[in-house]
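Input sequence (307 aa), recorded before submission:
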Amino acid sequence: MRNNVTEFILLGLTQDPEMHKIVFAIFLCLYIATILGNLLIVLTIQTSPSLASPMYFFLTHLSIADSCFSTTTVPKLIVDSMSEKSTISFDECITQLFTMHFFSCMEILVLILLAFDRYVAICKPLHYPAIMNQRVCRILILLGWGGAFLHSIIQTILILTVPFCGPNVIDHYFCDLQPLMRLGCMDIYVINLLIVFNSGAICTVSFILLMISYSIILYSLRNYSAEGKRKALSTCSSHIIVVIIFFGPCIFMYARPPTTFPLDKLVSVFYTIITPLLNPLIYTLRNAEVKNAMKKLWKPFATIIDE
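Predicted structure, C-alpha cell format:
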C-alpha cells in the first residue's frame, strides 16, 4: 500500500489559544534551564581534575544525551505553541522519532554503566582501578552509542514499514510510536509486538536489572564505616532517583498494547522535558564533589565581578 502522507498535523499539548502563550513561556524557560544545567555539568567535569573518575566520565555523556534528547522535541513544541497550525513533514517526523529514541536509549545505557561503575567501586574496591580503567570506559561508552543507534534504527525501520494513506492528525506534540501507528493503514498487531519487544523490553529489563544491582550495592554497604556508608548512599540514592523518574514513564508508554490514554501527553512531558532538567539538579545538589568543583569553576568569575 502506498504512503500518501507527506506531512502530519500536530495537535500539541492544548487546543486552547489562551494556553499557547503559557506553554511557550513555561517550556522555553524549562528548555533553557535544561541546556544550561547540563552544559554546566559537562564544563565542570571537563575542567576539574578532581572529577576524573569513570563515574563523572559517564555523567558527562548522560548530560550530553539529556541535552540532545530534550532538543529533539522541546524547540518544536515552543515554536508550534506560537503558530496557528502546527505541521511537520513526513521526513522530519521520522527524523524526530529516530533522534528521540537514539538519545533516550543512550540515556538508559549510560544509567546502566553508572550502576555497573558503582557496583565495581563498592563491591570490588580492590579491583576497581583495573576493571574501570580509561580504555574500558571508552569502549563501554562507544558500545553504548552503538547500541543506541542500533535500537533507534530498528524502531525507524519498523515505522517505515507502516503505510500512511489517510488521516494525518497526530494528537500529540511530537512524533512518537503509538500516535503514529494509530494512523497506519494496516494491521499493526505484529509491528506493535516488535516495538514492545524492542522499546518496552529494553525499558522493563533495564529497570529490573538496575534495581537488582542497586539492591546488591546497598546490601554490600553493611560492612562499610559510617562515613563510607553516608558517601556511598548519597551517590547511589541520586542514581536510584534518576532511574525511577526516567524508567517509570518509559515503561508506561512503551511496554503496553497499541492504545492511547489522556494521560499520555503529561507522561511524555515528564520524561522528555522534566527528566533531562532534573538530572543535573539531582547530580549537583546531592553531590558534594560536583558542588565544590562548580564553586572553584566560578570563583575566578566572581573575583572579576567583585573587582
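Checked by second reader. The first strand starts at residue 7 and ends at 10.
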